[in-house]
Amino acid sequence: MSLLHAENIKPVDLSEHDTVFCDSLQALEWAYKNGLSKSAIIKSSSPALLWGNESNIQNIEEKWTINRIEEFQSTIKKLTEDVFNIALKVKEVDRELALSVSQSAYQFQKVIYKSACLEEVDFNNPSLFIYVDGKIGPSGNIMNSPWDQLLLHNPLFSKITYNIKDDKWNVLTTKGVSFWRRFEVAGYETIIYRLIIRLMNKLPNWLFKKEILMPNENELNIEIATSLALHGVKVSKIELDFSSDSKDMELDKNTTALYNAVVPIMRKRIEAWVVPSAVNVTMELFKSHLEKQFKQFKLLANGWDKAIGKSNIKRKAVLINSPGNIKGHALSNICRKNNIPLISSQHGVTVEISKAHSMLHMLLDNSVANFMFSYNSKIVEIEKNTYFDHSKHYIVGMPLRLIRMKYKKPINQLIPQIVYISTNLYHMGSGISQKTDYGRAIDESKIVTNVLSKLPHKVRYKTYPEDNRRYADIDPVLNIVNSADNIELFCKKIDMRYLVSEHRIFITTCATSTLGWPVMSGKPVVFINQKNHSPLTNEAHDSLSKGLFVFDDDKNNFHENLRSFLSQPINDIEKLWKEKEAARRKMIRKYFTEYSSGAGRRAAKIILRECI
Q1: Between the CA of residue 295 and those of 203, 252, 256, 275, what are the distances in Å?
Q2: Contact, 607 vs 228, CB < 8 A?
Q3: 472 and 365 together in one domain
Q4: Which residues form the domain of 339?
Q5: pLDDT tens per residue across span 583-595
Q6: Does 471 lie in the same domain as 351?
Q7: Which of 113, 282, 322, 366 is the most exposed place for a label (fewest CB within 10 A)?
Q8: CA-CA distance, 295 to 255, in Å (whole number)?
Q9: Which has the closest alpha carbon to 158: 8, 369, 362?
Q10: Does residue 27 sit in the same domain as residue 56?
């Protein structure tokens, strides 16, 4: 029997607990060795724990059926619109702050999702939470559900912290990618851009009449900035300036009024999904969450104000990547007050093709930017009809980094010619999938077991290079991949763009931006359309089915048909691919890029004409 010290809670005797919340197999094994009974009920959402089908390990998300998640997600869009509208009516609340409040309400849905997993008994009966800690990623520790916060008022609830052993975690890198390959993908524009930034930083401002300020980058923005620099525009990087600011900023009366205005909407939402005992504590967490967002918004706005104020060039604009977040909202607020145009550009093909993104409109760039540069007509059509649209839209085409993917010869013939590009990510709560993490793991394992492992070809399984660690344990799907004789596991955190030239056939799933890289390679793409995980829109499905090889996972004999198709000789698949060429050109123009080159120059001309 072992007594272990709990974080901010009295010492915990593991042998006394028969109900445990835990999302780590490693932590659970440690607990068993230190006194926890093997018959204790373990409540978990971790695929690694649930994989063994142990009778005492319960799926805490079991009540979240596909239909229930679909209902939960289908009401989010109206919720964010209602929160935005009520926030905007509060005296002296700017549009940008109202957007942040709306987005905060969306982000909080993950907490409501977790709160809805709890039963009345969880708020009264004894239980233990094993919190895991270790190397995590840039977003902080997201490996744990918020049980310690939700069950805070239960006097019989205890918590201990387990530190992961032999802890290793890496983030996205170009380590292992040759300089030549990086140059081949990035192009000369990026080298020119880097040199321009260094040179212009050393030159006095009086040499320039116009300036473009860049808080961050994406592929298209780099091209735009390079073209602007060649037209005599100073390109300057800017960073948030938090000098002399207190991180613990005080709230004012307006923010209190804002919270009070939003409360009825959120309380109604919470009451609809959680048990009565969970309502008040979930509301407390929402209040705390919103207060942090208010303070963060003020802190960021002050930081951006100081950063922009360092430039004395009068004719300027801000060119930003992905401003549809609290940083972008705060920057937009400062830009508007200083009459500075905020410009953004598309950073991947997703909105055009994804059915799931209809509930994420408050996250889109066009909710913030004054000017929006897009790849194709379809995304403009969609974004113009979103509730939060705030932009003038221009179609300029894809950046050269994507377009130059085409027709690269394989680097090494010894590498598997078929690659499966996994997009399987676990969200530990409501995301763009209508299945739980465990459900997604099962679906992914079936693709490996029933299709990839039975092919007469060697296959590379490329994991998604996630920066933020979802669970402490290795994904059980990867154990299945490792056991297959014909599959090579590639789990280095390297972006797919650097690997496109190494393969002849691409297989991927889910309507995400990952699809853009293989499609633009010109090589055969097999797309698995998952009905309950970011599926294609009906219109996109029709077009992509003509241009690519699309297989729907809800059709009869899905695995058998996919396996049969991929078992063909690669040359035969490539011949079938060529037959789709005319339809694919139409598909690419509508859903990927309107133009075959010149996106940066095209956007730069618009900026010079209309923005600075």
Answers
A1: 36, 10, 12, 30
A2: yes
A3: no
A4: 179-238+311-398+596-610
A5: 999 999 999 999 9
A6: no
A7: 322
A8: 9
A9: 8
A10: yes
In what helix (H) or strand (E) does residue 546 lie, and over which residues does it extend?
Answer: helix 538-547
Q: What b-and-e string marks burial along 100-136, b requiring 16 or more CB atoms within 10 Å of the CB?
A: bbbbbbbebbbbbbbbbbbeeebbeeebbbbbbbbeb
Distance CA 389, CA 387 (A): 6
The residue count for the chain: 612
Same domain, 119 and 196: no
Judge contact between 472 and 132, C-beta under 8 A.
Answer: yes
* Residue 251 per-residue DSSP state: P
Domain count, the chain: 3
Do residues 311 and 284 touch, judged by C-beta distance below 8 A?
no
Asked if the structure places residue 489 within a domain, the reply is: yes
CA pair distance 63, 79, nearest whole angstrom: 22
Q: In whole angstroms, how far apart are CA 247 and each of 100, 155, 323? A: 18, 32, 22
Token pair, residue 280, equals: 């008040």
Instruction: Looking at the structure, tell me whether residues 487 and 445 fall in a common domain.
Output: yes
What is the C-alpha separation between 141 and 132, in angstroms, rounded?
9
Looking at the fold, whether 375 and 511 belong to one and the same domain comes out as: no
Evaluated on CA atoms 342, 392, 364, 544, the torsion sign reads: negative
CATH number at residue 435: 3.40.50.2000
Encoding tokens for residue 18? 């028969």
User: What's the pLDDT tens digit per position in 199-254?
Assistant: 998 999 999 999 999 999 999 999 999 999 999 999 999 999 987 655 556 666 67
Mean pLDDT of the chain: 92
Find tokens 């408050």 and name the residue: 362
* CA distances from residue 400 to 218, 239, 387, 501 in whole angstroms, order as listed: 12, 27, 31, 16
3-state helix, strand, coil in the chain (%, to 5): 45, 15, 40
Please tell me the distance from the alpha carbon of residue 443 to that of residue 544, in angstroms, as a whole number: 22
Tell me the CB-side half-sphere exposure of residue 48, using CA atoms within 13 A: 19
245 alpha-carbon distance from chain centroid: 30
Give the model's pLDDT for residue 28: 97
Residue from 421, 408, 590, 409 nearest 496 by CA: 421
| Burial class, 16, CB count within 10 angstroms (exposed 0-12 / middle 13-18 / buried 19+) | middle
* Residue carrying the six token digits 């744990």: 144
DSSP states along 451-495: TGGG-SS-EEEE----SS---SSPPHHHHHHHH-TTEEEE-S---
pLDDT tens digits, one per residue of 266-302: 999 999 999 999 999 999 999 999 999 999 999 999 9
